[in-house]
UniProtKB/TrEMBL annotation:
Belongs to the short-chain dehydrogenases/reductases (SDR) family. Pfam families: adh_short (PF00106). SUPFAM superfamilies: NAD(P)-binding Rossmann-fold domains (SSF51735). It comes from the Bacteria. It comes from Nonomuraea cavernae. This is Short-chain dehydrogenase. Signal peptide: none annotated. Keywords: Oxidoreductase. GO terms for molecular function: oxidoreductase activity.
Length: 228
């Protein structure tokens, strides 16, 4: 299978970083599956990409949804776990509503975990795959966890841990699993940020198209390995 025939699935692909990643993967010749919770938004995003793009409805908090998408779209070679939410900005960890923490974990950690359980076994069976977890500097001990958004921060730390575990399990199979810190990006979550989604997408897609001798189980920032 050549690079131009890879099938790539992006979660939360209807806007922001996910939309930019989908655009970039499609421009490189990959067949992109655009997923979003809202069917109309998913269809619009896929239609905007054009040929060889398709839409799929996906709520990563639905335990059965990843398997339904797998059954609908078939084998996937590249998966970008981009879907994420931040709900607790400004809440110190001692008073943050635990319900907000739980909702963030459902999307940011368990959502990516469900997707890996649905699609990683097929990648291993076929002997090739790339999985990218869109993480955050707030989830890295080397960068400093953020007390201003504690549930989100800890959820991204857990996502980094999941990356390490999945990479260890798939070592030597042809599947590479890595996390990317895209930096502060101008999205609905960070409307005042300087970095554009298209710039972040370049780094994420680089990780999603690593050569066979590329790293696995690492944290990437600006295409360089950085400490967890």
């Amino acid at each position: 299978m050549t690079a131009k025939t890879r099938i790539a699935l992006v979660t939360g692909a209807n806007r922001g970083i996910g939309r930019a990643v989908s655009d970039r993967l499609h421009a490189l010749g990959h067949r992109v599956v655009v997923t979003a919770r809202d069917p109309e938004e998913a269809e619009r995003a896929a239609a905007a990409l054009g040929r060889d793009a398709r839409a799929a409805v996906l709520d990563v908090t639905d335990e059965q949804a990843p398997a339904r998408v797998r059954d609908l779209v078939g084998p996937v070679d590249i998966m970008v776990n981009n879907a994420g939410i931040q709900l607790d900005w400004g809440h110190p960890p001692s008073v943050v509503p635990v319900e907000l923490v739980r909702r963030q974990f459902e999307v940011n950690v368990l959502g990516a975990w469900r997707m890996c359980q649905a699609f990683l076994p097929g990648m291993v069976e076929r002997g090739w795959g790339r999985v990218v977890m869109v993480s955050s500097g707030t989830g890295a001990f080397s960068n400093g966890l953020s007390a201003r958004t504690p549930g989100y921060s800890v959820s991204k730390t857990a996502l980094n841990a999941l990356t390490v575990l999945m990479a260890a399990e798939t070592a030597g199979t042809g599947v590479l699993v890595n996390a990317v810190n895209p930096g502060q990006v101008r999205t609905r979550m960070r409307p005042q940020a300087d970095r554009l989604p298209e710039q972040a997408a370049e780094d994420i897609v680089w990780a999603a198209t690593l050569p066979d001798d590329g790293p696995s189980g690492v944290f990437l920032r600006g295409r360089k390995e950085t400490p967890w």
